[in-house]
């Protein structure tokens, strides 16, 4: 008489299925771990790129200041970059170079992420209390007209234009409340 042993064969099938399930689970966990490692690597690369960009912006700002300082100190060097109306006295044009340095400093603080747009607006609102800064801004409008309309620099320039208009039209001496600071 032959004996049937269905129980042992059934257990073998269950064990094989369990082993396959365990293997699939380990494979999935391994894939998830590799995917998370890849995401972390991409994030590290993004942060390194951002740090590199900030470093490059800081270097560019230093170079701008050094070149501008030379032009301020030496009128013969200022002639190289002087695009202002020649009827403007040399001393006034040197002041415009200095005004440009202040404006560009704020712009670079914004570009490097040290100031957000609302903070930039507040600093610009203070800076443009100076009549000389406003003269510089008017005298340099031709330079801004050459900017690509969609660029950050052109957009900030338009923001300053609106700010100056708001300051001029304000019916208050409390300049620190004039205008509508942009929100992030």
Strand content: under 5%
Principal-axis shape equals: elongated
Helical content stands at: over 70%
Major sheet description: none
Please, how many helices? 7
Describe this structure in words.
- By secondary structure, the chain is mostly helical.
- Helices cover 76% and strands 0% of the residues.
- It contains seven helices and no strands.
- The chain has helices at 6-73, 75-81, 90-111, 117-127, 131-139, 141-145, 152-169.
- α1 packs antiparallel against α3 and α3 packs across α5.
- The protein is elongated and about 100 Å long.
- It starts with 5 loop residues before the first helix and ends in a 15-residue tail after the last helix.
Indicate the topology.
Elements: H1 6-73, H2 75-81, H3 90-111, H4 117-127, H5 131-139, H6 141-145, H7 152-169
Helix pairs in contact: 1-2, 1-3, 3-4, 3-5
Please tag this protein with its features.
mainly alpha, 184 residues
Structure described in brief:
This protein is an all-alpha fold.
């Amino acid at each position: 008489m032959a004996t049937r042993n269905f129980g042992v064969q059934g257990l073998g099938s269950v064990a094989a299925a369990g082993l396959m399930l365990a293997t699939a689970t380990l494979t999935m966990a391994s894939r998830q771990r590799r995917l998370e490692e890849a995401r972390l690597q991409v994030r590290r690369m993004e942060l390194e790129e951002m740090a590199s960009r900030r470093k490059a912006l800081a270097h560019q700002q230093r170079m701008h200041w050094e070149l501008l300082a030379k032009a301020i100190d030496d009128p013969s060097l200022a002639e190289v970059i002087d695009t202002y109306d020649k009827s403007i006295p040399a001393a006034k044009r040197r002041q415009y170079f200095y005004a440009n340095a202040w404006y560009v400093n704020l712009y670079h603080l914004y570009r490097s992420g040290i100031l957000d747009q609302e903070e930039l607006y507040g600093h610009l609102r203070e800076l443009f209390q100076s009549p000389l800064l406003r003269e510089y801004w008017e005298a340099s409008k031709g330079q801004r007209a050459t900017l690509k309309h969609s660029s950050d620099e052109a957009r900030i320039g338009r923001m300053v234009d609106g700010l100056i208009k708001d300051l001029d039209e304000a019916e208050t001496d409390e300049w620190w409340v004039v205008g509508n600071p942009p929100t992030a």
